[in-house]
Amino acid sequence: MSKKILVTGGLGYIGSHTVVELQKEGFDVIIIDDLSNSEEFVLDRIEMITGKKPEFHKFDLKDQTKTNSFFQYNKVDGIIHFAASKAVGESTEKPLMYYRNNVVGLLNLIDAAKENEVDNLIFSSSCTVYGQADKLPIDESAPFKKAESPYGKTKQMGEEILEDYAKAFDKKVLALRYFNPIGAHKSTLIGELPKGVPNNLIPFVTQTAAGIRECLSVFGDDYPTRDGTAIRDYIYVVDLAQAHVKGLKRLLANENKVNYEIYNLGTGNGSTVLEVVDAFEKANNLQLNYKIVGRRPGDITAAYADNTKAETELGWTPETSLEEALRTAWEWQVSLDGSDHQK
Ligand code: WQD
C-alpha cells in the first residue's frame, strides 16, 4: 500500500512542487494549508500535472483543536512541514505574527504528531540560519549566526525545537536548509505567486521583463565580490522538491542513524546579482532594465552551499542549470499574463 504523507503548506511555492514529485513517486498526499499565501486553484493544477487530486484540508495549524482532530482521523506515515510565513521584511514589522505562525504552528503540529505516533518529519529551514558564514562554501557544521530578522530567528528556533523533540521522543527529523529556490514547473501550471511587489530577486526580474515593474534595482555593487554585487546559490525548485522525496524515503527506510539530521540544499555554485541578470537575458533572449542602487539593509555578501552531505547521504544532485531554471521562471511569468497575482 502506498504511504500517506501530510504536506503542510502544500499549496505554496515549494510545497506544491514537492506534492507533484511525491505523487510521481507513488506517495498518497494530504495537504493542510490555510491559503494565507497560496491559492486553492493550485490543487487543480497539481491534478492537471499528475492526474491525482491530493486530499485538501483548509485550516491554520495555530488552531490546536483542528490540528489534533486532523491527526485523530488521518493516519499518516510522514510529514513535510512547509507551512510558515516567509517574508523577511514583514517579519520585522510583525514579529509576533511570525513567532505565532512559525513557532506555535510547529509546536501544535509536533504535539499532535507525537500523540498520534507519527515518527517522520521533514522541516523547511533556510540558509538564513548561517547569516554571513565565515567560510565558503557553507557546510552543515557552520554555526548559527545571530539572525537579522524575526523570520530568521523562527527558522533557528524551529530547528532547535525539532532537535530536542526528535531526541526526547525518539522521532526522526530532517531539517533541510534551502539556499535560494527559483523557477517553476516546466508545465507552467505551478510556480511562485508573489503577493504585491516581490522582495525576492527572480520574481522582481521576471516582472520587470514583463513590464509590470519599470526597473530592477540591484542592491549594492560595492560588496567584496568579483563584480561587486552579492552572491547567492540559486537552486531550481523542482530539484529542491526532489530532495524532499529522497529525504523522506531515507526516513521511511530507517536509513538515518541519528534522530536529527541537517542537509544543505543548494547547487554549490554562487552567482552574483549581475550574473543572474546576464543569465536571465541570455536564457530568454531579452534585455532587462536595471540600475545599481544602495545596499539593502540586512543583506549578506555571499552564501553558497557545500552540498556534499546531501549528495552522498541522500543521493541527491541538482540537475538544472541556472539558465534553464531562469527560462522556466520566465515561461511561468508569461503564463501569468493578465492574472491578478502580480499587481
Ligand atoms: C537575492 C539577492 C539581494 C531583490 C531571502 C531570505 C532567505 C530566503 C530567500 C526564504 C540579494 C538581491 C534582490 C532586488 C536585488 N528565504 N536583490 N534586487 O535575500 O538571499 O534571501 O530569500 O524564504 O531566508 O533572506 O534572497 O531573492 O531577496 O535576494 O539586487 O530587487 O538579490 O540584495 O543579493 P535573499 P533575495
UniProtKB/TrEMBL annotation:
GO terms for biological process: galactose metabolic process. Keywords: Carbohydrate metabolism, Isomerase, NAD. It catalyses: UDP-alpha-D-glucose = UDP-alpha-D-galactose. The keyword Signal does not apply. Pathway: Carbohydrate metabolism; galactose metabolism. The keyword DNA-binding does not apply. Its cofactor is NAD(+). Gene3D superfamilies: NAD(P)-binding Rossmann-like Domain (3.40.50.720), UDP-galactose 4-epimerase, domain 1 (3.90.25.10). It is an enzyme of class 5 (isomerase). Pfam families: GDP_Man_Dehyd. It comes from the Bacteria. One of its GO terms (molecular function) is UDP-glucose 4-epimerase activity. Residues 6-327 form the NAD(P)-binding domain. CDD domains: UDP_G4E_1_SDR_e. InterPro entries: NAD(P)-bd_dom, NAD(P)-bd_dom_sf, UDP_G4E. One of its GO terms (cellular component) is cytosol. Its EC number is 5.1.3.2. NCBIfam families: galE. Homodimer. Belongs to the NAD(P)-dependent epimerase/dehydratase family. This is UDP-glucose 4-epimerase. The gene is galE.
